[in-house]
UniProtKB/TrEMBL annotation:
One of its GO terms (biological process) is menaquinone biosynthetic process. This is o-succinylbenzoate synthase. Keywords: Lyase, Magnesium, Menaquinone biosynthesis, Metal-binding. It catalyses: (1R,6R)-6-hydroxy-2-succinyl-cyclohexa-2,4-diene-1-carboxylate = 2-succinylbenzoate + H2O. InterPro entries: Enolase-like_C_sf, Enolase_C-like, Mandelate_racemase_C, OSB_synthase_MenC1. Pathway: Quinol/quinone metabolism; 1,4-dihydroxy-2-naphthoate biosynthesis; 1,4-dihydroxy-2-naphthoate from chorismate: step 4/7; Quinol/quinone metabolism; menaquinone biosynthesis. The active site is at K111 (proton donor), K218 (proton acceptor). SMART domains: MR_MLE. Its cofactor is a divalent metal cation. It comes from Microterricola viridarii. HAMAP family: MenC_1. Its EC number is 4.2.1.113.
Amino acid sequence: MTQSPLPELAEILTHARVVTLPMVTRFRGITVREAALFEGPEGWTEFSPFVEYDDAEAANWLRAAIDFGWRAAPAPLRERIPVNATIPGVPAGQVAEVLARFPGCRTAKVKVAAGDQTLADDVARVRATREALGPEGRVRIDANAGWTVDEAEHALHALAEFDLEYAEQPCASVEELAEIRRRTAYMGIPIAADESVRRASDPLAVAAAGAADLLVIKAQPLGGIHRALAIVQQAGLPVVVSSALDTSIGLSMGAHLAASIPELEFDCGLGTASLLAADVTLEPLIADAGSIAVRRVQPDAALLGRYAAPPARRDWWMARVARAYTVLERELAL
Ligand SMILES: O=C(O)CCC(=O)c1ccccc1C(=O)O
Ligand SMILES: [Mg+2]
């Protein structure tokens, strides 16, 4: 992999801002999203690894932030990216109001298998989504590795009547994905890999093992647009570009990645600005008629001030950037 030189740490931190954004509903256990934002020669960029990730994992996210801020994005092949609605693990009765936040989206991804949810809850949520979107809508699920192979087989059987577009990361390991894919092939539900790509030591292992039908590709955890694009090219599978619950600045990185992929047959998981109750820009990358624009995003000074992280959190993030930077420096020195 070709390495670009790193900008100086001081240069990265000069215009750094840290924000704490409230969310509309709890999503993957959090109700606020923290993010660090930097300004490079190419524009604003984002560093927002989840707080529990260690420095080695966060370093990939920093590589991505530097890539988008300091290196020109590939030429876009399209101006807009169709996106899916993302339905957190809410009660079925709240599905319609969540969907209403994603104007014009024909596709919805429903979170299932969360710790506090029963299969009956999941079935009810997926049913409500299918009813709201109608037969022409596309409904996919994401279990975030929450099922064993047996549980996944049972759940997919129960959910098959809703005509699923695919099931994302039903189980944790590549071996389990291969096994559930074999067992449920007769149902015709494609299996997508997410954590097995973005958190694996080798993001291509799941494709090489034939354990998934498609890959979920995220720019930040995969080290940025250029690295993610190389993974897409080498994997040889269809992909869905998705967000990590980014601010609109991180979403603009995802949109530029999606715009550079020649074949984009699935709607992308880049509509997540709708899950934030506040954003850093006056022109957020929110779905309009089911798609978001491919453009750079400029933060608004007043919003950066209003949602500035408390000093202790800002210090924590600045120290984290420095530690992740050290990891990248060591890798470059090898
Ligand atoms: O793909 C989407 O619809 C939205 C993004 C999403 O679900 C997500 C957001 C943050 C962390 C993990 C995930 C995930 O896909 O598992
Ligand atoms: Mg996922």
